[in-house]
Amino acid sequence: AIRITQSPSSLSASTGDRVTITCRASQGISSYLAWYQQKPGKAPKLLIYAASTLQSGVPSRFSGSGSGTDFTLTISCLQSEDFATYYCQQYYSYPPTFGGGTKVEIK
Amino acid sequence: EVQLVESGGGLVQPGGSLRLSCAASGFTFSSYAMHWVRQAPGKGLEYVSAISSNGGSTYYANSVKGRFTISRDNSKNTLYLQMGSLRAEDMAVYYCARSIVGATMAFDYWGQGTLVTVSS
Known about the structure:
Radius of gyration of chain A: 13 Å
Oligomer: heterodimer
Largest interface: A-B, 22 and 21 residues
Order of helices and strands of chain B: EEEEEEEEEEE
Distance between the termini of chain B: 40 Å
Distance between the termini of chain A: 36 Å
Shape of chain A: globular
Strand content of chain A: over 45%
Order of helices and strands of chain A: EEEEEEEEEEE
Largest sheet of chain B: 7 strands, mixed
Structural class of chain B: mainly beta
Number of strands of chain B: 11
Number of helices of chain B: 0
Structural class of chain A: mainly beta
Number of strands of chain A: 11
Shape of chain B: globular
């Protein structure tokens, strides 16, 4: 299975900050990467797929980049509703695998 | 509005069985591959199983292969997960999820989840 290493595992930030989360795949996955946001007690929500395609309804402050093995999720101006845990997921091959998650907390 | 509603979770003893259901509405269920993803308490997301739109193809993670069976009834717009020989490590919230069109193994809609507790 393809391993996904996500970093950092947690970060503290303030409203208005620019936040970057990275994922590295153990082998090339082209652009077959998605990002999800999960709030406590809730299901994950799709933010980005195909590495950089914003899901309908997701605010434009979220963006994704990368291809091959290295990927980035950027939140350009952190809002209060963005405090959550973020997961990346590769869907290049079975089984789909997830990064370990990044918890974004209020500083 | 797309909705996925899981049910069937609960407390089960080690070695026991349980069947989860996921009722779908708001889209043409028979056109989409569907999946189960689980999350152990306080842990990350783990992929469990997939089924093609017509039910003809299935996939299982190694951790559940031979113990879980995924199925669907397109006439009832319902996805199932039959779980057997349950172990403590199967305890988790189980989510059903819909494939993104053109990206079979990425998920654009998720249910709210149903909790499976494995304990004696």
